[in-house]
Amino acid sequence: MEHLVKIIDSVVWPIAAVWLGYIFKGELRALLGRMSQFKYKDVEAKFDKQLNKAEITASNLKKELPKNWEKATTRAALTQYEQFKRIAEASPRAAILEAWLDVEIAVSAAAEKAGLESNPRSPALLAEHLIALKHIPEETLSVFHSLRKLRNQATHMPDFTLTEEEAERYLDLALKVANTFRSYAVKNV
User: Fold this and answer.
1) Rounded to 5°, angle at Cα 185 from 104 and 67
2) Whole-prediction pTM value?
3) How far apart are CA 144 and CA 47, in angstroms?
4) Can you tell me the distance from the alpha carbon of 87 to that of 91, in angstroms, rounded to the nearest whole number?
């Protein structure tokens, strides 16, 4: 009889935990979605860690811009940043997608300036060609690919929730990369 009580006692807690997990699976899914680290099968998204790595690489980007670049774009860049920031307050994921589109537009503008055909090519290929042609600093490519990878995670992992702070950090990097491409696009040669 004592053995039976011990067996029941050792089995009841795990069964209760599984039962509670089943009952509250929707709430648990929402709670897990709020984490900035997520693992699903073989895919693990560590948004914060990848952002840190991209920020370190971006800090090494060439700081010099063409003459009068600051005057020409500061006002527009601030306005654009503020727009992205407002989007991030409502939806960090949407802000990341908008910031990525801005990077793609800047890459296309730089490719057009360099005489590269942008219609059939992806922004990644255009960025690689611009860097191979020495129009854009080499370090930019690493940050570009990091941003693309982070954007893909934000887009394709529906249960993955981002914080506003992570979105703002992404925005900072995206604008830095976009401005690097834009600086070439507006440079007088």
Assistant:
1) 135
2) 0.64
3) 15
4) 6
* Distance separating alpha carbons of residues 72 and 77, to the nearest angstrom: 9
| Class of residue 75 by CB neighbours under 10 A (exposed 0-12, middle 13-18, buried 19+) | exposed
Q: Give me the torsion for CA of 9, 10, 14, 16, rounded to 10°.
A: 0
Which residue from 29, 43, 65 is spatially nearest to 137, judged by alpha carbons? 65
- Residues with Cβ within 8 Å of residue 88, at least 6 apart in sequence: 94, 95, 164, 167, 168, 171
pLDDT digits (tens, 9 = 90+) for 110-124: 988 888 876 656 888
Output phi, psi for 42, to 5 deg. Answer: -95, 0
